[in-house]
Structures are given as structure tokens and as C-alpha cells.
Amino acid sequence: MSREVRNALLVFAGAVLVLIVVDGTVLHYVRPGMAPLVAAAGVVVIALALLDVVRDLQRRPETDDDHDHGSGRSAWLLLAPVLVVLLAAPPSLGSDAVDLAGTRTVAVGRAPEEPLPPGESPAVPLVDLVARAAASPDGGALAGRELTVTGFVVAARDGPGVDLARLVISCCAADASPVRLRLDDPRGLVGGPGAASDRWVSARVRLVPGTATRESGFVPTVTVLDAAEVREPTPAYEY
pLDDT value at position 84? Predict the structure, then answer.
């Protein structure tokens, strides 16, 4: 591979990194706080390639052949991931990632210390609901409250019906862990057995106290009061 082709590939790769930050696709792979670092990496790659071009223009022509021989072969390896991201960007992780987790205990972090938002049915992150439910067997601040949560539909882990799930990431999609709610949904507002997975739903729910236990894998049960299908939020992950 000539130096010109290698540098063109590096510029192309750097430009794709910047592009996925601009169009938001980067949030399929990393948390929002990492996006500026991805963009910065793209800019650095472009700058290094352009710097090499400038050096080539300054180099005497008679020395080019010796310098080019056998250089830059590994740059071709950049094409595969760059083309995948550019032409067939993978979607955010969904029910398949939850299924792979199997019966593993869901990701439960420290319960938020701040009070629940005011209002009749405030929107809360699904991971916050799970953490609060696991911290208080009697439901604590959740007891009797109506809350609005958004997640995607997955097959119920135990028994018929469906659960509502989200994926939580610390850094990037590679470390994603699931959180889920078991739905007490007698009216089938979210969907009964066999309902299509990966549908995004916003649901108004009420916690069933005492259900987020170690025996249940810290998966609380909630009663579904109302539900509607929605578009996938951006970002799709919780943190």
C-alpha cells in the first residue's frame, strides 16, 4: 500500500468517527460523556494523516521509493470496522442482550438519595426504580406511587407474559447489563405471551412491594396501569 492510500484511509476513518458523533450514532456504542472523546480521536487521526501528507510533500522525490516500500499494510484493517459503522451501523442492544444474560441477577446500583420527582406519575429511569425497590422491601418512597417508566419488551424470565427491560452501561455497550421489571398486566396493555420483543413502551406502573428480592434476582413486579408504544429513546441506554 502506498503512503497516499494509507493516509487517505486514515482520513476516512477519522471522518467516520466525527460523523457518528455528529449524527448521534455513537450513542449506540458509548455513553454520552464519551462522545467528545470519540470526536477528538477522529480529529487526531485526521490531523496525523494530514501531517504525514505535508511531510511527504516536503520530502525529496528521490527518497520516496525507499520509504514507501512495504509500509502501511495494516491500514487496510481499518476498512472493515469503518465500513460496518458507516454502511450498516448496528442498532442499540436490545432483547438479545437481555436473553444472553439469562437468569443472572440484574444490575442493581446504589438507590438514589434524592426524592422522587413531584407529580402524579413522574417519569423515572427504570434502573432507579429497580434500585429503590431493592433497597426497601416495603417499597419505601415507591409505596403507593404511580410512576412512568420506558423500556423495551422482552419475554418474561419466569412464566408467561412479558417483562419491561433496559440496558445499563458504565462506559460502552460492551459492558451492558440488564435491568428489568416483571409486569402484572392482566389487561394486556403491554402485551401478552408471544408479544413481539424489542417494542419500546412507556408505561404507568405501581410497584408491588416486597418483590425485588434476591430470590427474584432483584426483579421487582409492577402493576401496569396504562401503557403506550413509543419510539426508541435517544440514548437507548441508561447509566
Answer: 67
